[in-house]
Structures are given as structure tokens and as C-alpha cells.
Amino acid sequence: MLKVKPPDGYPPEKGRYLRGNDFSPVAVCAILDTFDFNIPSELQKLVMAGADTGAALSGMLQTENVGLEKMICNIVANPNIRYIVLCGREAAGHLPGESLLALKKNSVDENRRIVGSGAPTPYLNNIPMEIIDRFNNQIVSIVNLLCKPGEQDSRAPGLDPKVVEKAVWSCYQETEVAFMDYTLYDTGAYPEQAIVHQIASRLTEPQEIMAPGKSKMGMGFMLHKLLPRTDCQRCGKRTCLAFAIDLAKGKCCLEECPVLDQPEFVGDRQALDKLLE
Ligand code: SF4
User: Fold this and answer.
1) Assigned domain for 199 exists
2) Where in 110-228 does DSSP place strands (E)?
3) Which residues form the domain of 245?
4) Nearest protein Cα to ligand 1, atom 8
5) Per the structure, how many domains does the chain have?
6) For residue 208, what pLDDT is reported?
7) HSE-CB of 246 using CA atoms within 13 angstroms
8) Could you tell me the distance, in angstroms and rounded to a whole number, from the CA of residue 161 to the centre of ligand 1?
9) Bridge-based pairing state of the strands 57-61 and 26-31
């Protein structure tokens, strides 16, 4: 069976995940449906279950755009990964789980919008089309254990670490195993070279947005793309979009969003500073 050593630079994107067995055919994606400063222990247990059972990567996904793009970059950098086990509760605001499933099923349209996703901004503008196609070809199947938003029953399959463990185990068996409605086994590595791609810039044609005559609203939408988009209200605004629009109007400043101080948003913060210069 074909297995490859992941290249230097794998995994290219940082995030809330654990790196496990590089030669495993499966990654675990638990949807983060809360603020990232208040991650519930049951989600952490799902991620641990994935890593302990032998997933290549096991982590959390929060947003339907940049978060999903980072996950895609990490997966195409390791051709051994052929399955994703999707678990946790769907996040009602961002619908990242639905967006992942829709991406695999329908890909994106000419505007890089994920076809069939009901999320607010399911656009994959920061990675080349080649990577989106590669992701969809490399991933054989997404094992969908995703629970509905707000699910509280810890025995639901998508919240049960034992079920996640069984799903991961099934993916790396040498012969076919029935797991729920899926037939799973290790198909071996995707027969093309790894692609190591890092999201260099989160800005799509910023000069267009900054050009004279563009509305404050347009600028607000651009700024919104770079905010954490948790809608946590710690800045005193109802949503990140409201904050972004006030930011564009000069009615507030970046320091009022404490979430931007977290290390994972350093790049976004720099890009925001640049836009607001
Ligand atoms: S802009 Fe406001 S709502 Fe959005 S993450 Fe920052 S503090 Fe939270």
C-alpha cells in the first residue's frame, strides 16, 4: 500500500489541532461552536480521542472560510489523509460543518463560493483552485457524525469520543469495515505529490477596497473578513460585522477587540493595521 512521508513544512498552517500519526489515512474535524476562550471539555475530548486513536491530525474548525482554508492546506500537504471524521455540534452562526460537506459534494462556483452552503460567507478566496480540486479528489469520504446546533445529549454519535475512536479505527483497517452507513478501509496515499501551501495573505485585492469612492460599508466588509468573527460581543458591539463597520467609520479602534490579542490572530491584526493606516 502506498504511503508517503509528509514533506518538510507539513502541516503548513497553525491552528487548534494535534498532530498524530503522519501515515494515518484520517483527520478528525470537531466543530467549535463556542468562543475560543471557552472551549468545552467535551470538544477537547473528541480531539484527544482522534489523536489517541491514530488520526494524522485532530482538531477544531470554527469558520466556513479561513478556518476551512487552513484545514484544506494542512490536508493536501499530507497525501496519506483520505478521510475526515466530522464531529461535534454544528455552529449555528458560521455553519462550518455544512460548508465542509457542501464543498466535498459541490465544490465552489466561479466566485469561490461553496455551492450549497447556507453559511454567511462561505468563500475560499485565499487558496488556489488547484488546491480546492486536489482536496476534493484526495478526500475519499467525510464520515459525517455532526450533531445539530445546540445538541446536549453527550450520547449523540458526534459528541461521543468512543464513536469517534471507532470511526478513526475503521478508516485505517486494511480490509473493508462497515461503520454506520460507510464502508471504510485504508486506500493508501493519494498518488500525487503533497502540496505545501500557506495562506500568505488574507487580503483579496485590498487596493480595490481602499480606492477612493469605495463605501465605508465595503471597507467594513473587508475588515470583517479579518476579524475573529466569533460575535462574542466583548467589544460592546452586537456582532463582529457591526464592529467592522464602526471601525471603517472611525467610530471605534482595533484595541477594543480583545480577541485580536490572541496569538493565532497576529497575522490578521497586522493586516487590519495595514488596511486602517
Ligand atoms: S470584534 Fe467584537 S464581537 Fe468580534 S471577536 Fe472582537 S470583541 Fe468579539
Assistant:
1) no
2) 141-144, 177-179, 182-184
3) 214-276
4) 232
5) 2
6) 36
7) 15
8) 31
9) parallel
Q: What is the CATH number of the domain that holds 72?
A: 3.40.50
Question: Is residue 257 domain-resident?
Answer: yes
Q: Identify the DSSP state of 186.
A: -
C-alpha span between 50 and 147 (Å, rounded): 17
* Residue 10: pLDDT over 50: yes
Q: What is the CATH number of the domain that holds 241?
A: 1.10.15.40
CA 193 – CA 5 distance, rounded (Å): 10
Pair (113, 152) in one structural domain: yes
Cβ 80 vs Cβ 189: under 8 Å: yes
- Out of 34, 35, 227, give the residue to mutate to test ligand 1, the one with the largest number of ligand atoms within 8 Å of its CB: 227
d(CA 156, CA 144) in angstroms, rounded, equals 12
| Residue 165 resides in a domain | yes
Protein residues with CB under 6 Å of any ligand 1 atom = 227-228, 230-235, 237, 240, 243, 257, 259
pLDDT band at 211 (very low <50, low <70, confident <90, very high): very low
| pTM score | 0.72
And the C-alpha cell for 250?
472611525
3-state secondary structure (DSSP) of residue 276: helix
Q: Give the pLDDT confidence of 21-74 residue by residue, as tens digits.
A: 999 999 999 999 887 666 788 898 999 999 999 999 999 999 999 999 999 999
- What phi, psi does 143 have (nearest 5°)? -80, 110
Q: DSSP letter for 248, please.
A: H
* pLDDT tens digits, one per residue of 244-263: 888 888 899 999 999 999 88
Query: Which residue, by CA, sits nearest to atom 2 of ligand 1?
Result: 235
